[in-house]
Amino acid sequence: MWKPDRQSKKPLYQQIAEYVERRIRLGEYPPGSKLPSERKLADELHVNRSTVMQAYEELRAVGLIESSVGFGTKVIGDKWGYQPRHAPNWRIYEESGPFLPNVPFIRRVREEIRKNPTIIDFASGELSNDLFPNYFFKKVWHENPYEGHLGYDDPQGFMELRETLVDFLQKHHRIHATASSILITSGSQQSLFLITQCLLSPGDAVAIEDPSYCYSLPMFQSAGLRIFPLPVSSSGINPDDILTLHRQHRIKMIFLNPNYQNPTGTVLETNRRDKILEITAELGIPIVEDDPFSLTAFKESPPGAVKSL
After folding, report:
1. Is position 165 within any domain?
2. Which domain holds residue 193?
């Protein structure tokens, strides 16, 4: 449990304001969620209520929270430029399905791989069998068998796994996170499904790389989104294209695969990353970053995740 540092030269109210802002930024307090009352938070942190009142006033001044008599204090609902939707629109998926096109080319690739096991399959993004650490996994399981519950766990995912990911993100990607801000999904497609259904509405305009991962497109189409391409060159996408699309279509979200982009393999240049962050921050456009391949580098170290910037 976090506590303000009474030995610090920074005022207590400012420490508390930064602590609450950090929890909002990490998603522990999502847009529209209610914050603890001033009295409750003061009791938890062992400070005067007036100190918490001053901290909340700081956050209200920068437009992060709002308070109303009888309803308490909550995070601004449109902080990221959208209103969260609380229920997926299942009707769209019932009518059209999540995988609209049955792409003949993909089907043919799968058939050829089944016929000839010597073909190297780059489509799935998985390691070759002889590179996968099967022995290591067996050894760890044998030496440290898990004796806990193997049924349904926390809806956000196994807590020890999330705590491990906090350390992993800090060590390998320089990304600060907390276990409470992490949601475990069964692959990126489930992540995209949750994002499109809970954070976007049919008719919203989104920007994706061109070319892009083929299985993501049907997901966006089935959610009723308007899809606009960001051409990928040898240096990645051009940040100016984001400005053009936003002027023309009011882009609500951008989907990027900056490191070893699928399918081109390109790496988004560092100066372009900075420019993209500058533009999206100015326009208030969220970036969804897909990074499945950074740890597969053979020699060079790819740039850090956009999130780490």
Report:
1. no
2. 81-130+185-309
Count up the domains in the chain and report the number.
Answer: 2
Q: Based on the fold, state whether residues 61 and 104 are members of the same structural domain.
A: no
Residue 38, C-beta contacts closer than 8 angstroms, at least 6 positions apart: 49, 52, 53, 56, 73
The count of C-alpha atoms lying within 13 angstroms of the C-alpha of 117, restricted to the half-sphere facing its C-beta, is 2
The answer to whether the pTM exceeds 0.70 is: no
Q: Over the chain, what is the mean pLDDT?
A: 84
* Angle of the 270-283 helix axis to the 239-249 helix axis, nearest 10: 20
- Phi then psi for residue 37, to 5 deg, are -65, 160
Residue count of the chain, please give it: 309
Tokens 């308490």 locate to 72
Are both 40 and 103 inside the same structural domain? no
Report the pLDDT averaged over residues 162-178. 92
pLDDT in the model for residue 153: 74
Q: Answer positive or negative: Cα dihedral of 261, 165, 172, 206.
A: positive
24 and 97 share one domain = no
Confidence of residue 131 (pLDDT cuts 50, 70, 90): confident
Tokens of 21: 């802002």
DSSP letter, residue 305: P
Give the containing element (helix H, strand E) for 289.
Answer: strand 287-289
What CATH number does residue 229 fall under?
A: 3.40.640.10
Residue 120: phi, psi to the nearest 5?
-85, 120
Tell me, what's the pLDDT at 97?
A: 47
- What secondary structure letter does DSSP report for 66? E
Last residue of a domain, one of 37, 54, 75: 75
Give dist(CA 65, CA 200) in Å, integer: 22
Query: Does 31 reside within a domain?
Result: yes
